[in-house]
Amino acid sequence: MTHTRYAFIKANWHSDIVDQALNGFLETIPAEYVDVFDVPGAFEMPLLARELAASGRYGAVAAAAFVVDGGIYRHDFVAQAVVDGLMRAQMDTGMPVLSVSLTPHQYQETDHHNAIYRAHFVEKGREAAQAALMIGKTRASLAA
Prior knowledge:
By secondary structure, this protein is of the alpha/beta class. The protein is 53% helix and 17% strand.
């Protein structure tokens, strides 16, 4: 593995679940190569992702959030805005920005659902780390 640095942004809403994505990410990429940034919620991730990607310090930026239907607003609007913003950050900067932002249709705040989503976020964190490494390897081969 190279000594590339990676940025990992995590939303603080449902942090007991979202933090599991970081744990999965760190199973693949050692913590000494990862800078972690907290934001209040998912909606705040794209701007920071763009700034981190534009800094040139990172091989990739990963962003994790859990956007659920709280009954007050349409959560799919927030989820769509976040994913669109992360994609725009990636396209504007030319730096990979990976989304570990999940929006379940049937989430209930029960022990059963929380356990399912904690485990799922660990797996998604691992997948994001593997994607970051694969994209880095591909980009390095294109530059050679």
